[in-house]
Design brief:
7 strands; alpha/beta; 7 helices
Length: 252
Amino acid sequence: MNQSQVVLVTGASRGIGRGVALAFARQGAQIIVNHYQDDANAAQTVQAIEAAGGTAQAVEADVADSTQVDALVETALTAFGRIDVLVCNAGICPFYDFLDLPEAVWDRTLDVNLKGVFLVSQRVARHMVARGEGGRIIATSSISSMMGGTQQAHYCASKAGINLLIKSMALSLAPHQITCNAVLPGTVETDINREALQDPTLRQKLEQGTPLGRLGQPDDISGAVLFLASPAASWVTGSLWVLDGGATSTLQ
């Protein structure tokens, strides 16, 4: 990766997003740390990035709100002059059984997880096209896009939508040398599921269902994201990278 790259990571205050931001920081990148109502954790991410040798600025924005997305991208361009890499990572996963799933939770989950990828990608892609030097767009999907979940109907649907959105974007943006790919993590231990993973029975079940015998960590995802942003991946677009310790290897 070129050390002068400017990278926008949505949902970067914690979890996979923070891990990705830190991975880019170790390469010397300039990073926009997007977050939503998470000032303290975003500040910690910025501090960690700077300690790792990177340059960062935290910007609050709800990725489901087009006005806030416009402001996010304009702030990034004012601060750094361009965006070379976009990592659409912002996402939520409130757990509800299908029969009890409120319409408002369905709407918010689809808005953040799927509409957010569309809004930020479209806005950044317009900048990349106008700039005329190509670019990289990488989205965080999930292996939940490939299977159902008793408390994740809304989440699974949103992530499945990301997969085909990325493929469609790849076709539309290929003439502009903008590659579009998604990573599909398995169970990665982050704040979104840390409380649930305190249940030893659930944790054991998940670990036993993973051929490599352990849950994922943010660094297990960030390496693939770095590759997709690197010159080595210049011919990779429209791909869905499963990163799950082998958990979906038996799916037909």
